[in-house]
Amino acid sequence: MILEKLIIENFRQFRGKQEILFSTVPNRNVTLVHAENGFGKTALLNALLWGFYGHEGLTEDLPRKEVLIHEGTAARSRNPASTSAKVTILFTHDTEKYRLERELTLEQQKLDAKKTDLVLEMNKDGMPMTERHPRERIQALMPFGISEFLFFNGERIDHLAMEENAALITDAIRQMLGLNLLQAGIVDLRHQSVLGKLRAELRDRTSAEKAAKIDEQARVDDDITEWGKRKETNQKNLLATDAELATVNSKLELNREAHHLQLRRNDLEKQEQGFVERLTATTKRLGQIVAEDSYALFAGDLVKRGREIVDKLRNEGKIPARVLNSFLNELLESHRCICKRHLDDGSAERKAVEELMHYAGDQQFNNAVGALDNALGRIEEGAEHTRRSLQAINGERLKISDDLKAVREELAQISHKITGKDDEEAHKLEETRVKLSLKQRELLAEQVKNDLKLEEFQKRREGLRKEIQDIIDSEADAQKAQRRLSAVEESSNLLQRILDIETKELRPVLNQDIDEHFRKIIGVGYWAELSDDFKLKIMKRLDVSDADSDAVKSLETEVALSQGQRQVTSLVFIASLVALARRRSEIPTIIKGLTGSEYPMVMDSPFGQLSQFRPGVARWIPELAPQVIIFVSSSQFEGDVATELKKSKRIGKRYYLAYHGPNIQPDAKRELEIGKNSVTVYFEEKDEFTEICELET
Question: Which option is the CATH number for 2-142+609-695: 3.40.630.30, 3.40.50.300, 2.30.130.40, 2.170.120.30?
Answer without folding.
Answer: 3.40.50.300
